[in-house]
Design brief:
The strands form 5 sheets. The chain has an 8-stranded mixed sheet, with helices on both faces. Strands 3-2-1-4-5 form a 5-stranded antiparallel sheet, with no helix packed on it. A 5-stranded antiparallel sheet has the order 12-13-16-14-15, with helices on both faces. Among the domains are: about 15-105, Nucleic acid-binding proteins (OB fold (Dihydrolipoamide Acetyltransferase, E2P), Beta Barrel), CATH 2.40.50.140; about 140-275 and about 420-430 and about 470-490 and about 525-550, 2-Layer Sandwich (BirA Bifunctional Protein, domain 2), CATH 3.30.930; about 295-410, GAD-like domain (Gyrase A, domain 2), CATH 3.30.1360.30. The chain is globular. Helix 3 runs antiparallel to helix 5, helix 3 packs across helix 13 (about 530-540) and helix 6 (about 275-285) packs across helix 10. About 25% of the residues lie in helices and about 25% in strands. By secondary structure, it is α+β, with helices and mostly antiparallel strands. Strand 20 (about 470-475) and strand 21 form a beta hairpin.
């Protein structure tokens, strides 16, 4: 494939393209003035910048070209004089001399330096002037990396026989676990559309329609609290395929993700391993475990089955962490803070034990543990002199989750550092927790996940024990996305709905358009969706997905550049049959 031709009527080359092989060639360049340095009365050096890079231009004529002016430069490429080569620039061996400068547009001084990383600039200012923030090399790189990921994903999906189909942005409101954005209908006052949390229902209908393999780089919207890995608007690779089981879906998505990673890093990762949800919780205390470091939760429950220590006696689960060399690093103040942290996460408390010289246990609770228990604890954990043990005894979910969070607090590196550790989490529970108001189970993923065939007979008698044919993809401790094999049988779908408190009548009203087509022959099918924003952020070395989105919202959901959200004209509300109720 030949390289793109970037020449236009105004330029012959991009600024960052010039190399020693261009010496002696006349060139026309366009871009923004990065810096201007005066050398005497009739000589100036201009650093000319576009998204491809920066080149030094030597100007002997009088010209008013200040920072961020848009200019066109005509000149001759030549080698930089001895001693002036800039090894920090790819173009640092050459410069453009004998320059004629044409000012295409003047510019006011920007509110922050464009050439700097702007790490010290308030994010609100950066987002208010996002069009300037995006000029910076870091942001330009992020946008192009994002484009490369999207391109690799599309290429991979199409090579696997998937067909790209667009689904509606205005759809009916459906319960999918997150708050929806509602859009009032002008034609039917009092009625509303919802913006899609995902194309879930439509992509399943495409399977009924016989499309067989669908994909879309889809825009999704959820009215959720924002954080580093979440925005109101996000982009995901959405896919669905027919006549498949779990392994088929995981293989298709693995190929796409690994191809995208290889496209931007130059090195394709190895195959993606798997953990069951129960194993992930038991070993790492999280359903999105970070596998870049080895500290695992240690099962201690059986060691204290007959203990006389009240904090451990009768606990459903006792989990431990071994912090190598931690005895010397953690004084009483840090240990008290760890204990407070464990309590803030929901634990009743935290037991800490230091392994002293000779293997003695140093802890306020050591005297409550028998010699047998102490010896078994040291053997099970493999702890040696100078190590620190942290122990949580509680209900199994709490013991796992609190220990898992402490594990992350103590050892987890920034999400973008270290190797790319993908892992599939499989066999999720079909239901997680109970609604406080209704007492009904809550769906683990969504209401359309296929129950594990081995568990479906317990759907009514013991619903919390039923596993789903559901799976998540995790990278460096971030959940990239989720999927499942879908229910394609109308009767089974209604049984799941009833467990969620959705009667047959409510199901017909809310999901009739979705359920009725299944009567005409729905194939077994399954799918997946993963967040491209999150994948791109990790590959770009960013801790926040706002850094890889062109025009994101702040953490409070506002847009400093446009002023959104803002009040609308009363006439617009009247046309929709709406009025604002005072708080």
């Amino acid at each position: 494939m030949s390289a793109p031709d970037y020449s236009t009527a105004l330029r012959s080359h991009r600024c960052g393209d010039l190399r020693p092989e261009h010496i002696g060639q006349p060139v026309s360049l366009t871009g923004w003035v990065g810096r201007r340095r005066e050398h005497g009365e009739h000589l100036a050096f201009i650093d000319l910048r576009d998204y491809s890079g920066t080149i030094q231009c030597v100007v002997a004529e009088q010209v008013d070209a200040r920072s961020e002016y848009v200019i066109r430069v005509e000149g001759m490429v030549r080698a930089r004089p001895d001693g002036t080569v800039n090894t920090n620039l790819p173009t640092g061996d050459v410069e453009v001399g004998d320059c004629h400068v044409e000012v295409l547009r003047t510019a006011e001084p920007p509110p922050f330096p464009i050439d700097a990383r702007a790490d010290g600039v308030d994010e609100g200012t950066r987002l208010e002037y996002r069009y300037l923030d995006l000029r910076r090399a870091r942001m330009q790189r992020n946008l192009r990396l994002r484009s490369a990921v999207n391109s690799a994903v599309r290429t991979s999906m199409e090579a696997q026989g998937f067909v790209e189909v667009e689904t509606p942005m205005l759809m009916p409101s459906t319960p999918e676990g997150a708050r929806e954005f509602l859009v009032p209908s002008r034609k039917g006052q009092g009625a509303f559309y919802a913006l899609p949390q995902s194309p879930q229902l439509f992509k399943q209908l495409l399977m009924v329609a016989g499309v067989d393999r669908y994909y879309q780089i889809a825009r999704c919207l959820r009215d959720e609290d924002l954080r580093a890995d979440r925005q109101y608007e996000f982009i995901q690779l959405d896919m669905e395929m027919s006549f498949v089981e779990v392994d088929d879906v995981l293989a298709a998505i693995s190929e796409s993700v690994l191809a995208a990673t290889g496209a931007v890093t130059g090195e394709r990762p190895g195959e993606i391993g798997r953990l069951t949800w129960h194993d992930a919780m038991n070993r790492f205390g999280s359903d999105k475990p970070d596998l870049r470091f080895a500290m695992e939760l240690i099962e201690l429950t059986d060691l204290f089955a007959d203990t006389g220590f009240k904090a451990f006696a009768g606990a459903e689960a006792v989990k431990g962490l071994r912090v190598e060399g931690g005895a010397g690093e953690f004084g009483r103040n840090r240990l008290d803070k760890l204990t407070d942290r464990a309590k803030s996460l929901g634990a009743k408390g935290l037991v800490w034990i230091k392994i002293g010289s000779g293997g003695e246990l140093e802890s306020p609770v050591a005297k409550f543990l028998s010699d047998t228990e102490q010896a078994a604890l040291v053997e099970r954990t493999g702890a040696g002199e100078g190590d620190l043990l942290l122990i949580v005894a509680d209900a199994w979910p709490t013991a796992c989750e609190v220990s898992g969070q402490l594990r992350n607090d103590l050892c987890r590196p920034p999400v973008h550092q270290g190797p790319y550790q993908f892992v599939w989490i499989v066999d999720f529970p079909l239901f997680v927790g109970v609604d406080d108001t209704s007492g009904r189970p809550l769906p683990g993923h969504h209401a359309f996940c296929m129950p594990n065939p081995d568990d479906v007979d317990r759907l009514e008698s013991d619903p919390m024990s039923v596993r789903a044919l559901a799976y998540d993809l995790v990278l460096n401790g971030w959940e990239l996305g989720s999927g499942s094999i879908r229910i394609h049988d109308d009767a089974l779908q209604r049984r799941v709905f009833r467990q969620l408190g959705i009667s047959d009548e409510d199901a017909d009203r809310k999901f009739g358009f979705f359920l009725n087509p299944f009567r005409y022959g729905a194939p077994p099918h399954g799918g997946f969706a993963f967040g491209l924003d999150r994948l791109v952020a990790i590959l770009a070395g960013e801790e926040n997905i706002r850094e890889v989105i062109a025009f994101p919202k702040t953490q409070s959901g506002s847009d400093p550049m446009t002023g959104a959200p803002f009040a609308v004209d009363p006439h617009q509300l009247a046309a929709l049959g709406l009025r604002i109720v005072p708080e």
